Write a sequence for this structure.
């Protein structure tokens, strides 16, 4: 393989080791690598409780993994269970990224998730050490000293190599640093036979590859890329590039998504069977999504409703849910949007128990005032519009629960209890 | 950290007490304890309720965070809190230091 024309930069992918659990350990004066801490969410919809993060020791001693259920966690006095504080983790993430900014220019830092960031060190690494490893060590120590957290660093010549070095090497390395280059990809990556362990390969893709007779990264690297592309589409070409450690993405020129849309979804705290209860939640999610869209002065020309059945409620034909959308005249009016969603729901629902609801608004355009409908009373329409605005303003000023529809107090409503959550989990104490 | 932060010890202690009172259900074979942590990284004092039922998992629930490193303020908050609750306080990561006012060891 001729790598001369591929981009040769220096990228760090830095990840916080068991981020939530480590933050909680540090706050309690415990060492994140030695403490046995489990961050467990007990929000309504997690059933008995869901493990959001487990410290490395909890993983090692008790085999607890993230997204374990509460009943899977042994009832051992050595384990310390703590509730999540999502707001705290967001703050800590911001602090860490602030430290990263001392090592790269602002536009060379790309936060990837709540605990991972990509740093394009191509231009700046020489300022901080003789070798990339030395620079990585320096950043690790800095974060350890200032925040008490351990970080793992993957180093590569492009973003995908950094990510692979992080996932496949650094996490098992004594110093928590891993490095890949174009030259070492065959030696380090090709022997891998557990394809799901490689970033971007999920279990479905892995199964597909297995069916094609591809059982290792070496097999993947030696297939004919054109045949793979014919079989799997664009993804085939990408997987082939992945096997060779090639990534031509230019992070600075990230393109915005072609068509933006707004959506919200939630997992219900229990199986919902009664129509009024389900419709109440659909209305609440419609409220929430529409209000987010209105804040961006947009109107939707298409609404979609996704329903996931409860495990016991699967349709006779084995479907696990349905997803339907419907065009409408561009609007940002909650009543119209909710009415459309309810119509969709009534058309397609056949009495199954439900566990999952999502609402999406797409085909957006900027709202330029109100387009009156000649078939309806204009005063009514203007009044509706004003009503929505006032509600938005009240909520902006006094919080999401300042005004709520009385229906949200009925059994089945989830809005009130979710209002205090961040990303669906406990945000932490207020007034902290 | 720049700026003067006014902390009213009584008010802070009331808030901590209100939160711990909800958690203190006085069960049999259960140890309740308030952890007070000197958080050098966040430059705060953190309060947690630690609940340990015999032979079960321990739980640690955040009560409050004092955004200061001033031991004098902490002493006042702790004194105010001690007037409201008899729960034992467990001081973590304070090293061998005396309270500024009473001159007793922090432990």
């Amino acid at each position: 393989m001729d790598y001369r024309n591929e981009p040769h930069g220096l990228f760090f992918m830095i990840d916080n080791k068991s981020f939530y659990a480590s933050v909680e350990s540090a706050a309690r004066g415990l060492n994140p690598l030695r403490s046995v801490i489990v961050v467990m969410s007990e929000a309504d919809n997690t059933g008995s409780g869901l493990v959001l993060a487990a410290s490395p020791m909890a993983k090692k001693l008790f085999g607890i993994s993230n997204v374990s259920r509460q009943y899977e966690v042994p009832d051992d006095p050595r384990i310390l269970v703590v509730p999540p504080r999502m707001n705290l983790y967001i703050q800590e993430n911001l602090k860490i990224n602030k430290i990263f900014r001392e090592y790269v220019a602002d536009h060379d830092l790309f936060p990837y998730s709540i605990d991972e960031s990509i740093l394009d060190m191509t231009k700046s690494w020489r300022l901080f050490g003789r070798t990339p490893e030395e620079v990585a060590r320096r950043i690790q120590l800095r974060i350890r000293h200032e925040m008490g957290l351990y970080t793992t660093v993957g180093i590569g010549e492009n973003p995908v190599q950094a990510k692979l070095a992080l996932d496949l090497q650094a996490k098992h390395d004594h110093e928590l640093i891993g490095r890949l280059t174009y030259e070492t990809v065959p030696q380090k990556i090709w022997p891998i036979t557990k394809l799901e362990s490689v970033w971007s390969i999920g279990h479905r893709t892995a199964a597909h590859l297995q069916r094609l007779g591809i059982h290792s990264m070496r097999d993947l690297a030696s297939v004919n890329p054109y045949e793979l592309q014919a079989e799997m589409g664009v993804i085939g070409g990408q997987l082939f590039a992945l096997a060779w450690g090639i990534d031509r993405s230019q992070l600075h020129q990230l393109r915005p998504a072609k068509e933006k849309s707004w959506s919200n979804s939630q997992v219900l705290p229990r199986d919902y069977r009664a129509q009024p209860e389900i419709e109440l939640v659909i209305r609440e999610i419609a409220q929430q999504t529409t209000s987010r869209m209105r804040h961006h002065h947009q109107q939707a020309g298409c609404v979609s409703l996704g329903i996931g059945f409860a495990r016991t409620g699967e349709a006779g034909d084995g479907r696990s849910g349905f997803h339907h959308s419907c065009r409408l005249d561009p609007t940002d009016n909650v009543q119209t949007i909710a009415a459309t969603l309810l119509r969709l729901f009534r058309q397609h629902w056949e009495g199954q128990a439900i566990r999952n609801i999502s609402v999406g608004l797409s085909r957006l355009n900027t709202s330029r005032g109100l387009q009156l409908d000649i078939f309806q009373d204009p005063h009514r329409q203007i009044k509706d519009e004003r009503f929505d605005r006032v509600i938005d303003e009240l909520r902006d000023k006094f919080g999401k629960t300042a005004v709520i529809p009385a229906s949200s107090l009925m059994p089945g409503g989830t809005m009130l209890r979710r209002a205090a959550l961040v990303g669906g989990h406990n945000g932490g104490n207020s007034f902290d | 950290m720049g700026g003067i932060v006014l902390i009213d010890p009584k008010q802070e202690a009331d808030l901590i007490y209100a939160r711990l009172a909800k958690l203190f259900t006085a069960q049999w074979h259960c140890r309740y304890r308030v952890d007070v942590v000197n958080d050098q990284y966040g430059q705060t004092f953190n309060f947690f309720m630690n609940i340990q039922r015999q032979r079960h998992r321990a739980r640690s629930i955040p009560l409050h965070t004092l955004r200061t490193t001033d031991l004098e303020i902490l002493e006042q908050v702790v004194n105010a809190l001690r007037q409201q609750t008899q729960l034992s306080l467990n001081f973590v990561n304070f090293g061998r230091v005396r309270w500024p006012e009473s001159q007793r060891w922090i432990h």
Observations:
- Chain A touches chain B through 23 residues (CB under 8 Å).
- Chain A has 14 helices and 14 strands.
- The CA atoms of residues 36 and 392 of chain A lie 44 Å apart.
